[in-house]
Amino acid sequence: MGSEEPRTNFLRKFVEFYQTHEIAKPLIPLLLLIAASVALAPHYFLAPMNIKVILMQTTPLALIATGEMLAILMAGIDLSVGSTQAATAMLAAIITKSTGNLGLAVAVAIALGTLVGAINGTLVTKLKIYSFVATLAGLVIWRSFVIIVSGGRLIYGLSEYSVFLNDYGTYIPMGFLLALAVIIGVYLLMTKTTFGRYIYGIGSNEEAVRLAGVRADLVKFLAFTLAGALYGLGGVMLIAMGGFAVDPWSAQGNELNAIASCVIGGIALTGGTGHPLGPLLGAAILTILTNILVLLGVTELATQQIFVGIVLIAAAASLTRGLRYVK
Amino acid sequence: MEIGRGSSTTALSPQITEKDQVLLLAKDIVKKFPGVVAVNHVTYDLKAGEIHGLLGQNGAGKSTLLKVLYGIHRPDHGELYVYGRKVFFKSPRDAREHGIILVHQEVTLMPHLTALENIALLGFMWRKWGARFKKTKFKLYIEDILSKFGIELDLDAKVRDLSVAEKMLVQVATALSMDARILLLDEPTSPMSPKEVERLFDAMKRLKARNLGIAFVTHRVNEALEICDRITVLRNGFKVGTVESRNIDAHELVKMMLGREASEVYMVRDFSDIDKVLARTREEVPLIELRNIVTKPQSPVEVPLKNVSVKVYRGEIVAVFGLVGAGKTELGKTLIGLTKVVSGEIRYMERRVKIKSPADALRLGIMYLPEDRRSEGLIPGFTVVANMDISSLKEYTKWFMVIDRRKEEAAGNDMVKKLNIVTPSLYVKVPKLSGGNQQKVLVARAMLTKARLVIFDEPTIGIDVGAKAEIRRLIYRYSREQGVSVLLLTSEVDEALGLADRIYVMRDGRILGEFINKNLDRDTVLKVLVYGK
After folding, report:
1. Architecture of domain A39-319
2. Which CATH class is domain B47-72+88-258?
3. Mean pLDDT along residues A61-65
4. Which chain B residues are closer than 8 Å to A210 by Cβ?
């Protein structure tokens, strides 16, 4: 690094910002990606409707990625994301269909997500099952739950959920604003409170945190529970942003998208480092990347995924720079 | 295909070694780490047909020296000679090329493979990628070596099923299969039972008879006396001296190992107030009392406590003195609920209590500061101030759990001033500080909790002399000014004598004696440690 001294004052400041602010890891690539997208397809990309689509698609992903972040910051992982999201969405859909009460449906969805998170937390802290394994079991169990309660059928026509798409002429959907508010809430929780401090501590050196007299198991339980609640809200947004329909296999593989958003957002898988708004930006990067590929005519999913994979590799490599080795 | 390396490649490891030929010479070695000189101008030599012990306490520099000999660390100063030739080791690979093998403290084998596969892959097949694995031929070759050295091993057993001593022998066999002439054994006996130790020693004697040179690192005085021909004693990175083991006894050796610090470094207390403190032990009930505690170890390295009874009164500084492996850490961890107590009881102000976790202990006002700062004490991702107040974070909140940054900063600044912590700011990450200052951060952590009993486990290990004196003074002043009880777990007799009101002596999980630190003679304490009662 010594040989490539930044030549100008501006560059030096830029490098310093990049090195001292964790948010820079996803923020700078996001800005570059937006700039590139504008340059490549200005008329399509900047069209208000396209921006609304990007915000809509970012919303559920940003919510589950923020939940996933809680697990990853503690050097754990949560693989139950996609199935939980589908389960909550399916339950919400069924309740909406049978009662027509949107508020009740949303509340139950979030409650189910919270319950799933609490179960994950209990498995990890009480039965001492690695979070990878405990949530892998959740991944299959909750998907089966969806298939059973739905009878394998698609539920559609859930037009009540259009309230989340209202934009009152601003092209910013209400659902996105709601998610943003929740994510900012999590950000404040992570940076301003004892709870957030303990989560970062557990990821950095759990043994020391325990010896310091912190009830680490309680913190872990609460973190997984909160993550579950976020998946529940993510499930609701899935209905709203996904054409007012839920099918038994929706949100499949979303745990991988959530993890990718975290990694791109600068949350190291070794735990303890990363900015709480990183997953939101990571989710935005993934969404915009797919969006611009579609606008450029790359409509085949498989080809898109190759680009996503390449971005993931680049992001992961930048996260572990300076480490001697990784596993 | 040729097997074995001495016959094929290098002229640097000649096959014939005569007795007393110097195999390895490390001259004037210096190795520095941030904040501490781990090895300080040490000269060490190893002859053919001898076992040369390296004896010292934790942090004496013996493992670091061994790592220099094996090419893991590069020395900042000094020279290495193998068979009289000057060498530079860039990595362990170079050391192995010269016939030097380090047998690790933590066994570094592949547990799911057989002994034979381990010996072959890590030994004579090392770096021969893509060669065929000729099982029958290899087995004959290894059996031949083993019988030559009189080592018994079941080659087809999976390594995970072997005992600790057998695993060590697999590592030794690995070295022998490469024609290594120099073995570096890094505390091989610490996880072993006495029977296993005997087995290893038997093997070592046979290797010695075959003119191998063995460097044997240990902190156990009796083992060093039993097996070594010569013993080099290290303390705080310095070489105290090299002695012939037949000319010295355990008592003398312990004295060398513990050394004698300059009195201004360790004598941080005055004795004018000792009567007042001791009077409380007659008038009051003990703050905390362990009664006949027996524990069951949860891992092979944990020392079981055998009928341990210890009392600590209000405002008193009690030292538990014992060498490494005496069970001091286990005693401390019993008080924070981290050992498995089979019988006996813990009493807090006469009331029987169950302590299940460090959080439980903290609620009673008991705080433990671990010996291993890096892995158990500090949170590397945290800033200096966050490391200080992690145990007392609830004190610095407003509205339920929002951290009050201003209050936090004020407390942090107060501690930096009081403890004279050298740091560019409260908000740098704690690994940037030197060892002594990191330790002070932990002391600050205890002070901020307003605990009633603080357990300091080896608070001055691995830090430089100046910081040592400072931290001892801080502990003394803190206890006296705040009326906090201190339980000091230490392997340095001077630290106990210079700081404590009462001293317990501990060995092998037992309390051997209790002294009131008043006109107490250093030798009296050491004699109890060496000879028991």
Report:
1. Orthogonal Bundle (1.10)
2. alpha beta
3. 96
4. 357-358
